[in-house]
Amino acid sequence: MEKSPETTPKKHPWFWSSAVASILLRLVLIIYFPNTLNFSSRPEVSTPITSLRRLAEGYWLKRSSMSPYAGSMYHGSPLLLSIIGPLTVDRSEGQSQLLCCLAFVIADLITAILIRSIGQLLQGADIQSLKSLGAGRFSKISESFPSGDIASLVYLWNPLTIITCLGYSTSPIENLMIVLSLYGACKRLVPLAAFGWVMASHLSLYPVILIIPLVLLIGSGLDTPPRKLFLQLTDGNDYKKTTNGSLHLTNFSWRRVVLFLLWASAWAFYVLVLCGISIKEYSSLGEMFKRTYGFILSVEDLFPNIGVLWYFFAEVFDFFRDFFLIVFHINILFMVLPLAIRLHHRPCFLAFVYIAISSILKSYPSVGDSALYLGLLGLFVNALADMQFSFFLFSGYLGTLLLSPVMHNLWIWRGTGNANFYFATAMAYACFQIILVVESVSSMLNHDRALKKLGNTTVAKKVQ
Amino acid sequence: MLPKKAHRRSRFESSSMASTPETEDQKPKHRPIIRIGIFIIAHSFLVSVVCCTAGVVALLLLPVLAKKTHVSENALMPGSASPMIADRDVFGANRFLNELTSMKLKSKRTGIEIPRLIALHMANLGGEVSYHKFQNQENKFHPLHFFTSQDAGANRVNRTCESYATNTVGIIRAPRSDGKEAIVLVTPYNPVNLSQNEVLSLGIAYSAFSVLTQVTWLAKDIIWIAADSQYGEYNSVSAWLKDYHTPSFGGSRKLHGNGCHKSNDVHESKLDIIETEVSDTLRHSGTMAAALVIKVANTGEEGGQDTLNIYAEASNGQMPNLDLINVVSYLAVYGQGFRVQVEKLVSLLDSKWLKFIGDVVETVGIIARSLNPQWKFGIPVKEYVEGSATLVSSLYNQALGVPTGSHGAFRDYQVDAITMEISPKLSSTSKGRQTEFLFRGGRLIEGAIRSVNNLLEKFHQSFFLYLLTSSNKFISVGVYMIAFLLLVAPLPVLAASLYSDANKSNPESENEPFKSWRWLYPTKTVFLIHLWGAIVSLLPYFIYQIPDSQPTSRLLIWASLSLFILTVLHSFFKARSVQWALLKSVTVSTAFVGLCVMSVINFATAEIGALLLVPMCLMIKPWRVAGKLHSALNLVLVIIGFPGAAFSVVKSAFGFQEGSTLVEFWYWLESLWAWNSATYIYICMVHLPCWVLCIYILLHSCL
């Protein structure tokens, strides 16, 4: 929700300057305040899955010829261990953290650039389809707002992204993989999309559900208004606009989807082989599955975080635990299918909704996940122009995110509060996220309805 | 989470209001909760007036709503055992006092001799004795210390050996425990200039320590710190606590100036005997259950009874668990016949308007009782006035965020601690009177320690968040929060109604596409002003780099730099002209968020801040739009709303005028950041930006 002050609707040479400024801000914070801003110890920033401290521990274990998963410290991927692990070794004073942070800054930058190109693709498709529908007013709006630039700047300047980047957590890399898969699917680069999806799911499991929007993207192309409208337009009279209108009526391309699935399985196989090689001497793939995916699914770690599950599973009786684990995880899956049916014509938006929902309901959420979906929200800025509650949500996010560290301090350090204080902010945060999702979906549907109304009037005009 | 909820509901409304005109064909039937919200927003003026008045009235009624304290933790059982302190303990204490007094009179090098003497006596009683040497840590302002832990010893400079002070620490190992828990007694004294009161407090601690070495029921170790307060009472205790809680392996002795050890060790042969037993390494015991700071004050103004003053406020308005205060005051009143007092603002005791309110309250109470004898409402005027004076002092001390004594150092380590300041009824030096005094003090300490000794867990049963209106009456968080919430509730309502009005009544907005995102422009302005506030709060760090400057000149440099930065920010980011209503809406909602966050950190600051901010935020209007009277009122509110002006007004109202206001204000601010008070952050990052924005709105040229 944090709109940067730079997002003014003018021509945009300022994009690069303000992107560079955000990178410079990160570098300044990293270089001059390496230890004072201790974000890595915040429960909102680093989770058991993403904490770099745990990764360093796992790498140390691996180097001393033990299983990196020994002792329930590390729960990430073995590939991450091989790639980022060497950076965590303390060569000289503070050097290691600098290298890691640089890696995360680069990841953030690439993510932002990818978001920008996704936005440009989406905008192009949007303008084209709106023109073919004859919705001049909407297409004018679409042209004036470079949604890609806005989205990527929102991502770069979002305080949550910056905090995550400085907080020694690996979520920038997870976010990069998710955005990479979306980008690949938008560009219809099937191998890239498959790679991104496989890596993202490998790193944090929840992006598995993104397979539906990815398949829709690859199969039927970018976000468009509902297909019915085009049919209506062509059926309503003999008005033929073959050039552009028919472009969107292309059928679902099964060939590409099959290709995607093949590529995905190939990449998955490859990743598993790599994992197997990298932990061959100390551990096995079975243990890896148990310690990473098992750890995510069974919510073993009940340290407080901004999610709502830790409190619940700390309270629940042991014999109900399995039941509620199933309930909570099914919860995400329950929403997948209805949303896919309702929003199948807008796969990118569907992906945004899935990411937002999984970041509300995942077992170890962090503000890094919120940073990603808030950035993606910027992609649909034209469609969501009439979104309600935007100011209310902004104030709510601001209030809860300020209150959360205060409550944590009250509970853990001052000892005058208790767990309920912190959990209250976690609940409020979840509520605001839910309102955000509900409102964005409903305003997207309203947008479609408005287009339909417009379509009806043009058809009526044509008939007259 | 009540504020959030209220806030959410009202914002919810605003947007639905905004959407209603669009769905013109059929008016949608809203859910009841939404209709209630729309109703509230439609009558926002009435709601604001009613809520604000109710908030102020509730604040004034707080002394009436105070409840009697009670010991909630059953394990404490105060006063259930008879005191075991005997003649020989007090006799020993008397002898100890005489030695101290004679040493004070004859020796010049008391700074070294007195710790030695105390150590000797501690060792003779059977305690494990050690010295704790520490350097004077200056309270230096560093902007990041609010958010991070201080890095220990980063700015340790080489100083001369004279800058070391010595705490003498004696530990009694509990016979029935494994040494995992401890109770701390602190007696601050100044070895360079020992006063008779400090001697007496050492004597009380001695008598208690003496009896505790002999008892069999101890389950927690007893640590007695004779804290060398030549660099301040707080510093000595906090230095000891810091070293106690940061385990050092071998390196500590080097840090603590081993080189100086030699010079101090040139001692007379008389005390050589104990040298083997006293170690310079810090001796540890377990985690601390509670700490009692014992002080003796000068004779109370009215004779008749010994008085016990309890000081409890720690940094940032934190209080110890109420049970600790309850135990001590219960034992003092019912066991030893002390008169227990909490600090109160004396100048309020004969204020006319407070008496008037008290009269009204009493009359209402009498009328209520005449209607129904079951209604126990209302208290006598005198009680009301005294309760209010105590409450104001309690609020002020909490809001300041500066601890009222060395007990504050313990709260930073989650240890409950209070200062017990005993003032004897007569300052007679007669032997008999002194012995009786030592007896009573010793019994009180012994009783309190025996109670705490019974604890199985930390203090957790009773309240941590409360305000005291007298030593046996308190207002819990659930009651005082109501007053605060009533006071701030109009803010979100007003923000919502302004927002929806601005969205509705904008003629050109009908075709504007990003109607619901128009709040982004005022938000940018508000964000910039808050950024300015953050910069202003960091400026003193740089001003301190200027050597040899007077407080007045520092203050002026600060003010001019702030103004300069404000103009630079203003000219750099040329603000697109925004509707004043939207700007006010955003300002008001940031003020609401800021006040709510602050109320969790330090309630008293938020309450006082809300009293200043809420009327200003509610009333403010551009002078072109508002009437003459309204504008004049706004001007007055804005002038009072400036922190410096508010400070001087309050000072003169309570009659503390001394010296130049500017200098005084600077010292006041200095004390705030020296103690890392969150109030400073609040003033710079919430109050000041809101004030600037209010001026901005006042001068807005609404086109």
TrEMBL record, chain A:
<feature type="transmembrane region" description="Helical">
    <location>
        <begin position="14"/>
        <end position="33"/>
    </location>
</feature>
<dbReference type="GO" id="GO:0042765">
    <property type="term" value="C:GPI-anchor transamidase complex"/>
</dbReference>
<dbReference type="InterPro" id="IPR009600">
    <property type="entry name" value="PIG-U"/>
</dbReference>
<feature type="transmembrane region" description="Helical">
    <location>
        <begin position="95"/>
        <end position="115"/>
    </location>
</feature>
<keyword id="KW-1133">Transmembrane helix</keyword>
<keyword id="KW-0812">Transmembrane</keyword>
<comment type="pathway">
    <text>Glycolipid biosynthesis; glycosylphosphatidylinositol-anchor biosynthesis.</text>
</comment>
<feature type="transmembrane region" description="Helical">
    <location>
        <begin position="392"/>
        <end position="413"/>
    </location>
</feature>
<dbReference type="Pfam" id="PF06728">
    <property type="entry name" value="PIG-U"/>
</dbReference>
<feature type="transmembrane region" description="Helical">
    <location>
        <begin position="319"/>
        <end position="341"/>
    </location>
</feature>
<keyword id="KW-0337">GPI-anchor biosynthesis</keyword>
<feature type="transmembrane region" description="Helical">
    <location>
        <begin position="348"/>
        <end position="364"/>
    </location>
</feature>
<feature type="transmembrane region" description="Helical">
    <location>
        <begin position="419"/>
        <end position="438"/>
    </location>
</feature>
<protein>
    <recommendedName>
        <fullName>GPI transamidase subunit PIG-U</fullName>
    </recommendedName>
</protein>
<keyword id="KW-0256">Endoplasmic reticulum</keyword>
<feature type="transmembrane region" description="Helical">
    <location>
        <begin position="291"/>
        <end position="313"/>
    </location>
</feature>
<keyword id="KW-0472">Membrane</keyword>
<comment type="similarity">
    <text>Belongs to the PIGU family.</text>
</comment>
<feature type="transmembrane region" description="Helical">
    <location>
        <begin position="257"/>
        <end position="279"/>
    </location>
</feature>
<dbReference type="GO" id="GO:0016255">
    <property type="term" value="P:attachment of GPI anchor to protein"/>
</dbReference>
<feature type="transmembrane region" description="Helical">
    <location>
        <begin position="205"/>
        <end position="222"/>
    </location>
</feature>
<dbReference type="GO" id="GO:0006506">
    <property type="term" value="P:GPI anchor biosynthetic process"/>
</dbReference>
TrEMBL record, chain B:
<feature type="transmembrane region" description="Helical">
    <location>
        <begin position="36"/>
        <end position="62"/>
    </location>
</feature>
<feature type="transmembrane region" description="Helical">
    <location>
        <begin position="519"/>
        <end position="543"/>
    </location>
</feature>
<keyword id="KW-0812">Transmembrane</keyword>
<feature type="transmembrane region" description="Helical">
    <location>
        <begin position="632"/>
        <end position="654"/>
    </location>
</feature>
<keyword id="KW-0472">Membrane</keyword>
<keyword id="KW-1133">Transmembrane helix</keyword>
<dbReference type="InterPro" id="IPR007246">
    <property type="entry name" value="Gaa1"/>
</dbReference>
<feature type="transmembrane region" description="Helical">
    <location>
        <begin position="477"/>
        <end position="499"/>
    </location>
</feature>
<feature type="transmembrane region" description="Helical">
    <location>
        <begin position="674"/>
        <end position="699"/>
    </location>
</feature>
<dbReference type="Pfam" id="PF04114">
    <property type="entry name" value="Gaa1"/>
</dbReference>
<protein>
    <submittedName>
        <fullName>Uncharacterized protein</fullName>
    </submittedName>
</protein>
<feature type="transmembrane region" description="Helical">
    <location>
        <begin position="555"/>
        <end position="572"/>
    </location>
</feature>
<feature type="transmembrane region" description="Helical">
    <location>
        <begin position="592"/>
        <end position="620"/>
    </location>
</feature>
<dbReference type="GO" id="GO:0042765">
    <property type="term" value="C:GPI-anchor transamidase complex"/>
</dbReference>
<dbReference type="GO" id="GO:0016255">
    <property type="term" value="P:attachment of GPI anchor to protein"/>
</dbReference>
<feature type="compositionally biased region" description="Basic residues">
    <location>
        <begin position="1"/>
        <end position="10"/>
    </location>
</feature>
<feature type="region of interest" description="Disordered">
    <location>
        <begin position="1"/>
        <end position="28"/>
    </location>
</feature>
